[in-house]
Structure prediction request, 872 residues.
Amino acid sequence: MMKSVDIRKTFLEFFTSKEHLIVPSAPMVIKNDPTLMFTNAGMNQFKDVFLGNSPAKSPRIADTQKCLRVSGKHNDLEEVGHDTYHHTMFEMLGNWSFGNYFKKEAIAWAWELLTEVLKIDKEKLYVTVFGGDETDNMPKDMEAYDFWKKIISEDRILFGSKKDNFWEMGDTGPCGPCSEIHVDIRSEEEKKLIPGKDLVNKDHPQVIEIWNLVFIEFNRLASGQLVQLPAKHVDTGMGFERLCMVLQNKKSNYDTDVFQPLIQEIAQLSGRPYGVDNKQDIAMRVIADHLRAVSFAIADGQLPSNNKAGYVIRRILRRAVRYGYTFLGFETPFMYKILPVLVNQMGDQFTELKSQQELIKRVIAEEEASFLRTLETGIKLLEQLSEKAKAEGRAEISGKDAFTLNDTYGFPLDLTELIAREQGLGVDRAGFDVEMQQQKERSRQAAAVDTDDWVIIREGEEVQFIGYDFLEAEVEILRYRKITQKNKTLYQLVFDRTPFYAESGGQAGDSGFIEANGEKISIIDTRKENNLIIHLTEKLPAQPEENFRAVVESGIRQMSACNHSATHLLHYALRQVLGTHVEQKGSLVNAENLRFDFSHFQKMTDEEIAKVEQMVNRLVRANIQLDEHREMPIAEAQKLGAMALFGEKYGDSVRVIRFGESVELCGGTHVSATGNIGLFKIVSEGAIAAGVRRIEAITTEKAEEMALSNFKTVGGFKAVFKSSADMVASLHDLVEQNAKLQKTIDALKREKALGLKDTLLASAREIKGVKFIAQRAELDAAAAKDLSFALKDTSDNLFVLLAFVNDGKPGISLMISEKLATERKLNAGQIVRELAKEIRGGGGGQTYFATAGGSYPEGIDAILAKAENMIE
Ligand code: SER
Prediction:
């Protein structure tokens, strides 16, 4: 039996022999195409070559491409696990001709490889060709038909519809008719019952497409029109896992050596064999498949998160965890334990799995753990809710309950639906939507702003931002309006042009003032509303129709610029030190400090933080000049290495900010050279979500102030520890020594107090038949208590009042023997409260022992004098 690694190798070697250049797989995660999150076909990376926008590296190329079909036009997620031949992540073996060979060679080579090299029985194969389409005004692909006719009998050639035989990447882009090769792997008996040709393209699990040969000739425009491309190309894609199934004589992709090691590991971990129970088998297939998808995505830098591509990955992972939890009894993280098998199997071909194994493992384990917690709480609650629904005779979980599960327990609606379905219940989706809407309304109202209509002073459309070049300008007010929020009135002003930067891209808006005829109005903030730049003031100018001098608070702007430029350097340094999985997840820049959120799976070590700081400060000292491009075509910017942020929309031309090797797409304001930043200091590093860390840092004077204040503190220490080589160690020693000394002192105090015992007993007087002691002593409250209890056992007729002053505060304690207290109805608590009046304090306790504190030490003598009156 041919092993999967050899099958992949044979494919690539075959096309090498046909003069193809073998290239590595493109990343599976796409970061710069708003229309596509993940690579869904081998040809994605060649889109621009087909369109004639960029040259091909070689006229003939072949590879194996990591693909993920979980969103958009090609989405197989829900099938996965339930059938035996769909996957989220799969490998697509492909060969391409860019304006080189066309249908004849593509067909002949595909046939040669399958039947002569890989020796698939010709009798098992069928081919389809494009049968024409009227709406597109396309004829039947007789050219392809005629080539096939020479190598396969005509009753095995089928014409197919546009749906099956006209391949398109998405709604727009390169496309063309295609010819597919299908294989029938059913048993001979089954074949006798229904001929294979009747099952082609009928979703039969054993009569399946394995190879698609696309003859790319057109570009589909957004209008729907097909435009002939400048050249004709070939794009073929063969499902690697399916090919393995055929060559290894299996009936399921999951029975091949691509999946079996994973499945066996899952079976082993769960203690349940594969192939016994259908539901468990589905779960194992889901887990095996999803582990691949998630691992490859993480290796490509896409961590699970709460939105966009990150959320797709999170959902895939959660789907697997849910199946494992429900059907295989996994209640603790388990997927990460299977990872070594995957790496062992695929790490040679896809080295990114090997090099990032640790990252992948940690991210998966952390995600699993956090989702299992959610799952457990949610499932328990859902069980109660289901019972409640059933008891009340409802067929549905209410929308309100589903909403609570979602809102309070983070339990996704689709999961609630899935579990409810297993309990034979539905979910009131409409009710859920209403709740969601109401919640949105509530938060909207909480933030409600009462906005008056605009008062138009002058007509004017485009508001020009001139703040990259000017901090001061002559401006006119175009319009203004009053807003009221939380009982506060503010005014929003719109100028014809403005030097004020409006809050965006994480950078705070500018402040400053406008001035006319001696009247100065403060601009407290600048914001954006759609594309309008709005200046906030607390007061309207007396004459709004005047010309104003608008002045940006340059100190604050400069600080923001320092912090913004430092953020870019920080981003660069983090990627250098931690790796290119580091990606910006959010940032906040103002005059005070900077905050940068980024994908990274674990706490940064002190060494890493120091390294990043050092690197940034080195770049600061290098005083790199700002290289700013206001209008650069996005492709060019990316060639320079600028990273488009995931989920950000960019125009065709972008602003590029470059400081040496740090290149970013950015609309913010920056320093003219990095030296302005002066000094960079990280003040904190911590987690804000699974896989996302946050760094807070300061620059310029703020960093200097901190450094100086620390120097001062250290200087103070040094003055104390004059001769010490290691001050920190000395400080530790000191603290330790101090603790020891304190212990010794406490012990000595205690000893001393007990030593007083005999002296006190000797001073006892007989008063009204009671052994009476009332003394001032050098004690603290604890020692007084110890002493009182030590005296307690010496007689059952004792009345011991101790008075003391500590740190200027007077206190007393009173102990009365139990027998005495009972017989004479004495209550220590009451007596103490009464006596404490003399020291202007209060206290209390029990019948036999009580204490009090006060604020008037001079009152102690009075207490000692008065004490005997307390005995009746
Ligand atoms: N682009 C075609 C497909 O994905 C052939 O590679 O099926």
